[in-house]
Amino acid sequence: MKSYRKVLVINTSQRREYINITPQVQAALHESGIKEGLCLVNAMHITSSVFINDDESGLHHDFEVWLEKLAPEKPHSQYRHNGFEDNADAHLKRQIMGREVVVAITDGKLDFGPWEQIFYGEYDGKRDKRLMIKIIGE
Predict the structure, then answer these.
(1) By the 8 A CB rule, do 119 and 17 touch?
(2) How far is the C-alpha of 121 from the C-alpha of 119, rounded, in Å?
């Protein structure tokens, strides 16, 4: 069995953003040479997420509205975590959206269902964050 690891660095221009990272994951899969196996993609920071969904701007807007209702950014004083930081809402949003995804690899391709794409969700951006791609298989 072979193993391949790649780390991407992402720096968003906004505090919250959704980025389709499917092309970067596919490129890493190609670089790995692995044809059958599993691909793990995970956020390496506690205020960002990785998830699978449709690449549709209306849906991304709906994520933003829904998450803001569940864990509003302001007032910062509503969170105990915000004594030294102002990102408690980002931790909660990440908890809801998830840390990682695993995708099957079949015949050298990510084995998705219809419309599935991999996204990086950022909830406390404007600084470098790391994302790991780990591919195992043959």
Answers:
(1) no
(2) 6
Which two three-digit tokens encode residue 11?
Answer: 């720096």
Q: Whole-angstrom Cα distance, residue 69 to residue 64?
A: 9
- pLDDT tens per residue, range 64-121: 999 999 999 999 999 999 988 899 999 999 999 999 999 999 999 999 999 999 999 9
Domain residues for 8?
Answer: 2-56+97-137
- Return the percent helix, strand and coil in the chain, to nearest 5: 30, 35, 35
Domain for residue 29, yes or no?
yes
Question: Token pair of 17, please?
Answer: 């953003």
> How many Å apart are CA 52 and CA 12, to the nearest integer?
19
pTM over 0.85: yes
Asked if residue 67 belongs to a domain, the reply is: no
Residues 6 or more apart from 27 whose CB is under 8 A from it?
A: none
- Measured between alpha carbons, how far is 97 from 89 in angstroms, rounded to an integer? 12
